[in-house]
Known about the structure:
Radius of gyration: 17 Å
Number of domains: 2
Order of helices and strands: EEEEEHEEHEHEEHEHE
Number of strands: 12
CATH superfamily of the largest domain: Nucleotide-binding domain of ferredoxin-NADP reductase (FNR) module
Number of helices: 5
Strand content: 25-35%
Mean pLDDT: 95
Shape: globular
CATH class of the largest domain: Alpha Beta
Helix content: 10-25%
Largest sheet: 6 strands, antiparallel
Distance between the termini: 26 Å
Low-confidence stretches: none
Amino acid sequence: MQILKARVEAISPLTEFVYKVLLKPQQDAEFSAGHYLQLVLGEKDKRAFSIASSPSNKQELELHIGASGADSYAMQALEHLKTAHIDGADVDLEVGLGVSQVRPEQARPIVLLAGGTGFSYVKSMADHLAEINYDQPVLFYWGVKEESALYAKAEMEAWAASKKNFQFIPVVENATDTWQGHTGFVHQAVMKDIISLEPYSVYMAGRFNMIGIVRDDFINHGANRDFMYADAFAFIK
């Protein structure tokens, strides 16, 4: 873990409820793709957020914060960041946390699965895998409630087009009649597309209750628990 001070460079809306935050650390940030950071609000008050940016960009940290409700966990953190941005003050960070970073040395096909703003966790991995020219198949599934929540759809379509072994598959739970892609629950789309998950390494992020269900269903679909990664595993049975 690295303790850093950082300046809040920008805060901008991605959707009605999701904000992109750019932080400029006072020194190079050291982390792996799939790590998270903690925003320190107090000695015993630290808020965890996945790092959306690639570890190759050590001078800027990108967060995607889904925040709604004035007193919510994320909204309180966002207000802290907004105040620091207005005041030109630094914020305190703990960077490089987590045990679910991408492991390209395994040289296995990869499924990246994100529910909602879990997107930021796997986006860092996706960008890193592109940068190192990873030569195994990488399937990026992003599940959202409505089409409007696919705030990075064009960006990820460009990512997929950059390598013949990359695919981006958005999945909309409550799709309109005009939606042309997958519908329903994101992990069920994975199981529909892939006969067996046995050869894959699987990285996933989303709500804890979702991750527990996905883990169990994927194991029943052939996934090897030793090659499944989510920081949520530490908090669920």
